[in-house]
Amino acid sequence: MDDNKKGWVFMNQKDLSDALVDQLNKSRRVTILVNGGWGIGKSHVVSDVGNGRLSEKQMNFIHLSLFGMNSLDEINKNLKREYLLSKSNQDETNMVKGMKAVFDNQTTRSVISHLSEKYIGLSIDPLNLLPLKLGDKFIVCFDDLERKSPNLPMDEILGLIEEISLKCKVIVIANEERIKESDLDWPIYKIFKEKVIDRTYTIDGLMDITVKKIIEEQMPGDDKFISDIRNTIFDFFIRHSIINMRTLEKSIAFVMDLRSRCNLDSVLTTLCCAIVNEDSLGQDLYSFSQKTRGKKDDSFYTKYSLRPNYEQLLLELLRFYSTNRLDDNKVKHYLNPNKTECELLLEELQEGHLKNETTLLAHFASVKQNLKVNNLKFFGSSEKLLYVLIHLQLCKNWFDISYDMNELKEWYLNVIVQLAQNGKINNVENIKLIYNQTVPFLNTFLDQYELAIQEQSGEYYLKKYTEYFDNKDYNSCSEIVHKHPGLILSIIDNLDLVAKDICTRELFAHLRLIVDISFRDKTNVHPLVEIRLSNLLHQTNDKVIKHRIKSLQS
């Protein structure tokens, strides 16, 4: 143990809390020093005791931070202000109640000060008239002693604390290691401590139960997802023996910020905590983002048991931590390496209630840009584009997001034609049934969608028909024409083959099917078939060919 620390009482949060409760309950007057490093949880424990564990004892707890205080007058005014606002000040006199009403109105205080200076030549702040009636039921806590203004002499503020300690119970919260850095303040502080302080408690670590409590308070929720994130943060801080409460709170805040942009897993959560911890230690974050080099003990990845292949992910999180800018796709592709950008975007829209307006506006901008440049690869299929547009509209309806779906119309009507694929028509009616009540533009869009699918369907089967025909697979050609008679107009030229010597039995059977379907279904192409056959009949003198043509006409 360091010689400077001999005689100090070392404890964790629970030890300190129990000791404070014990001392404050049994002592009529007591002055306690709570010492420890910054971020260790001193103020948290003291406030928890004053506002929580002692509240049943009807104790009045007044907390005053000395951070930046420049004068005793400023301290006194702030002390009286906290006195007025203390929650359990039940026995106020009428004067105090009146003063409290005056204090609550800054304008009234200024008017009184101005009038008093004008008529009696003396500026009076009503707050200075308030008697500070302390007693056994009051605890005054002076926090951040080491952070007082350099303009305020240490002996003056310690004299005030000593004066208050004669009227009530006092807690002083300080970081003695920081006070030692001042050659002027430290000697005075040591004299004061010996004369006034009854108990010194030094807190030197975060308890597991305290870490867990803070995490649960700041990340409430019973679902497994939240529970897993909480457990990851807890394990990180316990495993690495991190005792700074501010680092813990900052880590939780950073994790929750990232969660508002994307889903999380244990690796992302660990990276968030590691980044905040390195920042708290004053490290150069980007130097730690490099792959393992040299001594492994000096590596960021080894230190936090991470794989070096997380380098790009780490860099992206560092950028988010430093600039609040995040390439969502890089993080999402890490979480879902086998999913396309469109699939990831659709998942985000389907979980719109878990996101924020900024994220949804970014999704809208992404869809708009990909539609504008006809990025067919992004959407992949007409169905995916359809569902993306539907969920954009639903998010707009549900959350009143400020984007205009009409901005997309010019482009999605063009893109849908190019993306339409066969076999999707049956889904259209189901989509109408499910979404039509909440998506006003859906009927127009679905009509265009269905038309595009039908047109694209014809192009697809014409291509297949041509492939089969070139390979003389006439049976497969007949199956396509039977299912899609609308193709006859595109293949009517094939009837000319009936007048050629290459007309085999199989080809003739296929041509007969074409004519039969056009006659039977009374399609728009029926008159054209009749004219085509009549022209062929008049163009030939070959009796065999005439017989073939007449066979097709009969």
Secondary-structure blueprint of this entry?
Blueprint: E1 10-11, H1 13-26, E2 31-35, H2 42-53, E3 60-65, H3 72-85, H4 94-103, H5 106-120, E4 138-143, H6 154-165, E5 169-174, H7 176-179, H8 185-196, E6 199-203, H9 208-218, H10 224-239, H11 245-259, H12 266-280, H13 285-288, H14 300-303, H15 311-323, H16 328-335, H17 341-350, H18 357-372, H19 376-379, H20 382-399, H21 406-419, H22 425-435, H23 442-470, H24 474-483, H25 488-491, H26 505-520, H27 526-539, H28 543-553
Parallel strand pairs: 1-6, 2-5, 2-6, 3-4, 4-5
Question: How would you describe the overall organization of this protein?
Answer:
This protein has 554 residues and is mainly α. It folds into four domains: 3-203, Rossmann fold, CATH 3.40.50; 208-335, no CATH class; 341-457; 473-553, no CATH class. It is 61% helix and 5% strand. It is built from 28 helices and six strands. A six-stranded parallel β-sheet has the order 1-6-2-5-4-3, with helices on both faces. Helix 1 crosses helix 2 (42-53), helix 24 runs parallel beside helix 26 (505-520) and helix 27 (526-539) packs antiparallel against helix 28. The longest helix has 29 residues, at 442-470.
Summary of the model, kept short:
The protein is mostly helical and 554 residues long.
Mean pLDDT: 77
> Count of DSSP E strands?
6
Coarse morphology: rod-shaped
CATH topology of the largest domain: Rossmann fold
Class by helix and strand content? mainly alpha
Approximate strand percentage: 5-15%
Largest sheet: 6 strands, parallel
Query: Which architecture name of the largest domain does CATH use?
Result: 3-Layer(aba) Sandwich
Assembly status: single chain
Number of helices, where a helix is a run of at least 4 consecutive DSSP H or I residues: 28
How much helicity do the residues have?
55-70%
Rg, Å, rounded: 40 Å
How many separate domains make up the residues? 4
Distance between the termini: 113 Å
Strand order of the largest sheet: 1-6-2-5-4-3
List the uncertain runs: 1-9, 291-298, 422-426
